[in-house]
Write a structure and sequence with these properties.
By secondary structure, the protein is α+β, with helices and mostly antiparallel strands. It is about 60% helix and about 15% strand. It has 13 helices and 4 strands. Helix 2 crosses helix 13, helix 3 (about 40-55) crosses helix 5 and helix 10 runs antiparallel to helix 13 (about 350-370). The longest helix has about 35 residues, at about 160-195.
């Protein structure tokens, strides 16, 4: 019996001690629950990559997204091969299709051009003020500047689709993010005031929200598009669409925050703070907004895909961003005709970018929703 007790003693000492959840902060609890959702982690990682690509779009894109090349109209995606231990593209031969009166491109396996990293190309201003001509990758073809690497083909004007999708991410991803950020700030302030003070203030705010939500916003965009000049600077049009999207979506945030604040207002800690002489400002900033912040972040993560889709739809209908601006909605204008889609399916690649970004945002929002749930 003594031998058995001696053998079992080390096993007890090596047993893993349960974690004391009471010693963890709220952020640590949220992070621990969020890590359990593998899909949300993958979605967050992909989003980080997408936003990094958008930030360094001019460097990642091998060519100027607005560079017209008449010799490569509707060029198909380049054929990637592995030559001498590195990636390379096969040359292409242009052949005239007499039946459809169009130029088709056939791969030429006899000629290959190696893909180089960190090559010099067209000039650009990184972040608008740093001049550079360094690009992430490209093809250095001796004596023939017309050889290009088209990862995702070219459009009807010979512009590289990959470069345009990467550049379009700057507008489509950021316009949704900043639009939701502005609407989140407005909705949080208005919703907190509505739920905390109640009474006639709540009634007036809710009636104004209902009035805004019943307004036909498509008619508003049509009127704005008709009133604005066609040659309006890209930055001004970008800011205008961002503000309009924010003014449209803040009402939903306000309703969400109001519901949370209504429940917090009747809590014991709120009554204790008011009885202790705390001002309304201290109660709101100390108890209302911090407690509702996690819920606000979750709602915002679900709202960003809607803002991206709204910008894409408006640009697709010529009511949002217009050329020479590059966004995913502008790129989809080339895919309006069925003939173009059937003959040149790579023109639908911007749609895949929208689906990927929206899916990752929804996965992230789903993981955050489960992580901030105190009963999870």
């Amino acid at each position: 019996m003594a031998t058995i007790a001696k053998d079992t003693q080390p096993q007890v000492s090596k047993a893993r001690k349960p974690e004391d959840v009471g010693q963890l902060s709220q952020r640590q609890l949220i992070w621990r629950r969020f890590k359990k959702n593998r899909l949300s982690i993958v979605g967050a990682a992909v989003l980080i990559v997408l936003y990094l690509v958008a930030i360094f779009a001019d460097f990642v894109a091998p060519y100027d997204p607005n560079e017209i090349d008449a010799s490569h109209q509707y060029a198909q995606p380049s054929t990637i091969v592995w030559v001498n231990g590195g990636p390379a593209i096969q040359g292409m031969r242009q052949v005239v299709d007499s039946a459809n009166f169009q130029i088709i491109y056939l791969p030429d396996p006899d000629t290959t051009y190696p893909i180089r990293w960190f090559v010099n190309g067209s000039m650009y201003l990184l972040w608008g003020f740093i001049p550079s001509n360094l690009h992430l990758f490209g093809v250095e073809s001796p004596g023939d500047a017309s050889i290009k690497v088209f990862l995702w083909g070219a459009d009807r004007q010979g512009r590289d689709v990959f470069s345009r999708v990467v550049k379009g991410a700057q507008v489509s991803l950021t316009i949704g993010f900043f639009g939701v950020l502005i609407s989140m700030v407005i909705g949080s302030i208005v919703g907190t005031a509505s739920g905390y003070f109640g009474g006639w203030i709540d009634n007036i705010i809710q009636r104004v929200i209902e009035l805004i939500q019943t307004f036909p916003f498509i008619s508003l965009f049509v009127a704005i598009a008709a009133a604005l000049p066609v040659n309006m600077p890209v930055v001004q049009r970008y800011l205008l669409i961002t503000m309009i999207l924010a003014l449209i979506t803040w009402t939903g945030f306000s309703r969400e925050v109001r519901g949370k604040v209504l429940s917090y207002r009747n809590a014991d800690y709120t009554a204790a703070a008011i009885a202790a002489g705390a001002s309304h400002w201290r109660v709101i900033t100390t108890h209302m907004i911090p407690n509702a912040l996690s819920h606000i972040i979750v709602v915002a993560s679900f709202a960003v895909p809607g803002a991206i889709a709204a910008e894409t739809a408006l640009s697709f209908l010529n009511l949002g961003m217009l050329p020479p601006a590059v966004s995913w909605g502008v790129l989809l204008q080339d895919a309006q005709q069925i003939k173009s889609v059937t003959l040149y399916p790579w023109l639908l690649i911007p749609l895949g970018s929208i689906v990927l970004a929206s899916l990752c945002l929804y996965l992230l929002g789903d993981g955050l929703r489960d992580a901030v749930d105190p009963y999870a």
